[in-house]
C-alpha cells in the first residue's frame, strides 16, 4: 500500500499530489467542523430540555404522552427517542458502510446523509406548541443521518496520511470539530441569553438555535463535497483499479450478504476485535462522564444553569488544545502509550470529581477543563490507531462496526451510574463507579499487541506505536 511519502519521482507530479492531499485533509477537517454543530448545539444543550417541554404541553392529566399508542411519561420522551434512534443507526451504519465499500461512493453517501440530517435539523424550527411527535421524528432522522455521515467520514482517514502521520491528522480533525461546534454554540448561547433584547421569546430563540445547527451543517458540508474523492482510503497518486472497484461497479443489491461476510470475516482478525473490546469499554466510560457531568454538577455540586453552560463551553474549548497536544505526544511516544496515559488522566479526573467541594464553581470549571484536556485526544487517537488495523478496501465497513461499538453500548455506563446512585443515594458514589470502565479498558488495551494486529491485516506498521 502506498503512503503519503511514496510520491512519484517527477517533481511536478509530487507537487500536485501534495496539493491534492492537503485539499483532501482540509475537506475532511471541515466535515468535522460542520457536523459537530449538531452534536454540540442540538444533542448536548438545546433539544433535550425543549423537546421535553413540548412533550409536557401535549401530556394528559397524568403527565403521559402516547406516541404510537404507547403510554410514557413526557419527561422520558427525549431519552427514549434518542435510544430508539441509536438502535436504528446501528443497522444503518453497518448497511451503508458496506454499500459504500461495494460501490466506491463514500463521499456521495456521507454528504447525502449529512444533508438529510441537516434538513431534519432545520425542520426543528417548527417544533412549536405540542408537536412532540414531529420533534421525535426529526430527532430520529437527524441522529441516524449524523451517525452514518460520521462513520463514513472515518473511512477516509487511511487515505489522508501515511501511517506515521495519521495520529496528527486525526487529532487535527477532532480539534476542528470542537472548534466548529464550540463557535456556533457560543453564538447560540449569546442569542438565547439575550433573546429579550432581540424581541424573541425563549422558545423561539431555542428553535432558531436548533435550525442554525442544521444550516451550519449544510453550508460547510459543501467543502468536503468539493474536496474529497468519491472513494475513501486512497492516497493521491495511488491506483484505484482493484478487484473491489470492479465489484463496486455492480449493483449494491448484495450489500446485505457482503455485510454478513464482513462480520464473519472479522473473526480472522482477533487482535482487531480485542482492540475494539478495549475501546468499547473505556469509551463507554468517557461517554457516560460527558453525558452525566451536568447532572452531577447540578444535583451533587449545586451548580446553577449558568455554571453548567460555562462548563460545557470550557470542555469544547479546552478539548481543541487537548486533541492537538495528545496528537503531538503520540508522535513522540506512540498512540497506544498516549491513549493509556489519557485513561490514567480520566481516572485522576474522576477521583478529583469525587472529592470536589459543592457550591464552588471554580472547582467545577477546573473539572471541566480536565475533561476537555483528555476528551478530544483519547477519542482522536483511538480512531487513528484503529485505522491501522483495518484491511485495505473495507474502511467504511470496519469503521461502521467501530461506531456501533461507540453508540450501540452507550447504555452500560448510564446503567452502572444509575444503579450506583440507587443503591447508595449518592451521586459521588455514582461518578466514582465509572472507574471500572477505565480500569478494564486500560487492562485490555495493555494486552493488545498493536504491531501484530497491524501486520495481521497487511498494513504498514508506523514507526511509533
Low-confidence stretches: 1-9, 240-253
Oligomer category:
single chain
Secondary structure tally: strands = 2
Number of contiguous helices: 18
Q: How far is the N terminus from the C terminus?
A: 19 Å
Return the average pLDDT rounded to an integer: 85
Outline type = globular
Instruction: Give the biggest sheet.
Output: 2 strands, antiparallel
Q: Determine the structural class based on helices, strands and strand pairing.
A: mainly alpha
Helix share, percent: over 70%
Question: Order of SSEs, N→C?
Answer: HEEHHHHHHHHHHHHHHHHH
Share of β-strand residues: under 5%
Question: What's the short story on this structure?
Answer:
This protein has helices spanning 11-57, 77-103, 106-122, 132-154, 166-193, 202-220, 222-227, 243-248, 255-265, 270-299, 305-333, 335-355, 361-387, 395-407, 412-424, 427-433, 435-446, 450-456, and strands spanning 64-65, 72-73.
Task: Write out key terms for the chains shown.
465 residues, disordered N terminus, globular, two-stranded antiparallel ribbon, mainly alpha, 18 helices
Topology:
Layout: H1 11-57, E1 64-65, E2 72-73, H2 77-103, H3 106-122, H4 132-154, H5 166-193, H6 202-220, H7 222-227, H8 243-248, H9 255-265, H10 270-299, H11 305-333, H12 335-355, H13 361-387, H14 395-407, H15 412-424, H16 427-433, H17 435-446, H18 450-456
Antiparallel strand pairs: 1-2
